[in-house]
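Reviewer 2 asked us to include a model.

Predict the structure of this chain.
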Amino acid sequence: MSTESISDRREHIRSISVTALAALLGVGAALASMSMTGEITSLETANEVASDTTALMLVAGAILVQFILYDFTDIYSDDEFSVKNYLYIVFMTFAFWFVTWGILLTSEAADYLPA
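Predicted model (structure tokens):
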């Protein structure tokens, strides 16, 4: 009557890996978004930068890269990767991208990024 499941340690390592990769790719997409959109010199420029769809394409690419990577590395088996996992990865990556890019847009940190 025992059920076969992955060990608690392996499940913990997998969840840390998924969260860390989502966080790193979200922050990386924000940095790439900031360096691609250019320098902010006025409020009008900030509005143009914030509405640029290139930044959204970068975060969408970061999300898709994760799905391909998880499929390639077999972190999840077919029956373990559910809608909840997809939503978690999308939300975490988007949230880290949104917060990091928002901080970069409203601070003077853009001066230190390569053009």
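The chain has one domain: 20-106. The mean pLDDT is 80. We have added this to the supplementary material.
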